[in-house]
Fold this sequence. Notes:
By secondary structure, the protein is mostly beta strands. It contains 1 helix and 11 strands; from the N terminus they run βββββββββαββ. It is globular, with a radius of gyration of 16 Å.
Amino acid sequence: TVNPGETLTARAWAIGYGPSMIKSATYKAFNNPIDIPRADGSVNVDGNLSEWLASEFVTLDKNYSGTSPSTDAAYAVRWDGTTNQFYVAVKVNDPAHVFEDMYSHLNTQDRVEIYVHTTGGEPYAYESTQESAQQYVIGLKTAASRTAVSTANVWKTFAGNFEISDAQAQEIGLQAAGVVEVDGQGNPTGWLFYEV
């Protein structure tokens, strides 16, 4: 758990945009999860979620826009105090996969959007926090572009509009991986796993 007075710091911003004037923020829960467990060195970003406990996952049960074929989705968050980074695991059961090799539009493909509000206070409204928030959008590439290396199977953007190259991701400490689960015959089960 992040203790009172401990801080999580913002480390990246879009090219061409300056960083927020806010350099760090004391964590204040106003959404789920209420506690972000501190688990130093416990996450290997590879799309394999076996190091995450079932009890850590928060069910995503609200549809914020339109309809979704997704039947089950959840996420979990951990914080590594030695590297001052947080990690997110997402699992989605989606029988209708729509993959592209790069971000195209907010509602035309399978992807995960991680939005980090770094002030620990108001404003909470999405549109009002753009100066003090970070938004990463990660998606699985098409089957033709995927390899056996799960970290090479995802595209990464900042706010959807700014592609994050592998060199930039390394510079800002952004790791991402994605896996399409398959059964014993190699057929997709519907489950998509992301780790960031």
